């Protein structure tokens, strides 16, 4: 039986359904994932196409007239233990069937398509469940906008790092800052006129380049785009993007709601797009060193590395973006299926350990002595591959 990831489309199908589906397959291409490993299933094809033992994400599209289509189908999908995301337009209570009343729904708008697609990819283990953003800014120029973006991104369930809000008193400031940047998905730079006069800001940009972290650069009015990051997505602001056209007061300047929504959408998009390049960096470096020792390794379509061993077993190496957590050592059910198919007896997470706090590295070393899934530091790739 062919093994696939399933997206089941239920409820009242509209143009929004088509837009989300098209964006999903576009994201697969950006992440360099094979599209034929995924399939979308409509209610009309459900009995023929749906497989209960395969990873599934269900979208339920509400109906403003209260016509709860596919309610029986959703009941079966819930009993199978599947994730169901109710999508409503105005009123959750009126548009979503009672059987989904305990589910956390999402109110639809065009700028939510990225969010919906990323939720699907996260559920399949193709994006990190944590959604981490780092805001880089100059305090004496853009504090009020930095706080505004912090609050807006938190509202959309991002874990946001802002120095004034995220570092506890008594924490080593610089160590904590580098540690948190290492683990973020996107950096939002508030490029004000004197931004690059700050040594702290320059160092943060240098770190972003080293880590190949995607940067959303907000360029202030009457300022220019700085060529400050390898992976950069610029947004040119003008005075109309600011409430009352006030953009040069660090304490009172605020972006309009429309501008904030646009920035949040861009952050969501860059987050998914940047994952592939950071995985590629880990994969490329690991494979280059492995080849110097004559090891036969291959990249699989789902972006992990396999190595054949003499005893007809295989090792699997999984590129892990950011800081590995203990939960990362428990592979998803989909990956476990792939591991079973390969008769694998060793699984490793490979990660970039530069700038991660020593305390956390020691914790990961401790987990290596107690869990079946091990971790390998980037700075130890050569040593590990030479000895294994």
Automatic annotation (TrEMBL):
Pfam families found in the cross-reference section: TIR_2
Keyword terms of this UniProt record: Receptor
Matching InterPro entries: TIR_dom, Toll_tir_struct_dom_sf
Lineage: Bacteria, Pseudomonadati, Bacteroidota, Cytophagia, Cytophagales
Protein name: Toll/interleukin-1 receptor domain-containing protein
PROSITE patterns from the UniProt entry: TIR (PS50104)
Domain of life assignment: Bacteria
Domain TIR: residue ranges: 129-268
């Amino acid at each position: 039986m062919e093994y696939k990831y399933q997206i089941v489309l239920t409820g009242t199908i509209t143009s929004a359904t088509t837009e989300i589906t098209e964006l999903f397959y576009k994201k697969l291409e950006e992440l360099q994932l094979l599209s034929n490993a995924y399939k979308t299933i409509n209610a009309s094809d459900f009995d023929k196409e749906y497989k209960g033992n395969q990873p599934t994400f269900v979208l339920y599209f509400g109906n403003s007239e209260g016509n709860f289509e596919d309610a029986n189908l959703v009941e079966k999908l819930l009993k199978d233990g599947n994730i169901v995301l109710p999508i409503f337009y105005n009123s959750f209570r009126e548009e979503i069937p009672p059987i989904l009343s305990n589910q956390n729904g999402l109110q639809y708008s065009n700028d939510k398509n990225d969010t919906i697609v990323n939720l699907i990819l996260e559920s399949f283990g193709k994006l990190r469940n944590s959604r981490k953003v780092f805001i880089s800014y100059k305090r004496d120029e853009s504090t009020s906008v930095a706080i505004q973006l912090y609050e807006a991104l938190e509202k959309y369930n991002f874990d946001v790092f802002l120095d004034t809000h995220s570092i506890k008193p008594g924490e080593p400031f610089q160590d904590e800052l580098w540690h948190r940047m290492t683990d973020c998905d996107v950096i939002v730079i508030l490029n004000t006129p004197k931004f690059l006069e700050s040594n702290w800001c320059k160092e943060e940009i240098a770190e972003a380049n080293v880590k190949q972290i995607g940067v959303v650069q907000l360029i202030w009015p009457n300022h220019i785009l700085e060529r400050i990051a390898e992976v950069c997505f610029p947004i040119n602001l003008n005075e109309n993007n600011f409430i009352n056209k006030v953009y040069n007061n660090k304490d009172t300047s605020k972006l309009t709601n429309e501008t904030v929504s646009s920035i949040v959408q861009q952050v969501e998009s860059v987050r998914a797009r940047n994952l592939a390049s950071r995985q590629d960096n880990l994969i490329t470096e690991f494979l280059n060193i492995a080849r110097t020792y004559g090891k036969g390794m291959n990249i699989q379509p789902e972006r992990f590395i396999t190595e054949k061993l003499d005893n007809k077993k295989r090792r699997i190496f999984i590129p892990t973006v950011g800081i590995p957590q203990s939960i990362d050592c428990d592979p998803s059910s989909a990956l476990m299926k792939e591991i079973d198919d390969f008769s694998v007896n060793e699984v490793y997470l490979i990660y970039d350990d530069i700038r991660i706090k020593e305390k956390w590295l020691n914790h990961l070393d401790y987990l290596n002595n107690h869990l079946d899934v091990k971790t390998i530091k980037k700075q130890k790739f050569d040593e590990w591959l030479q000895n294994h």
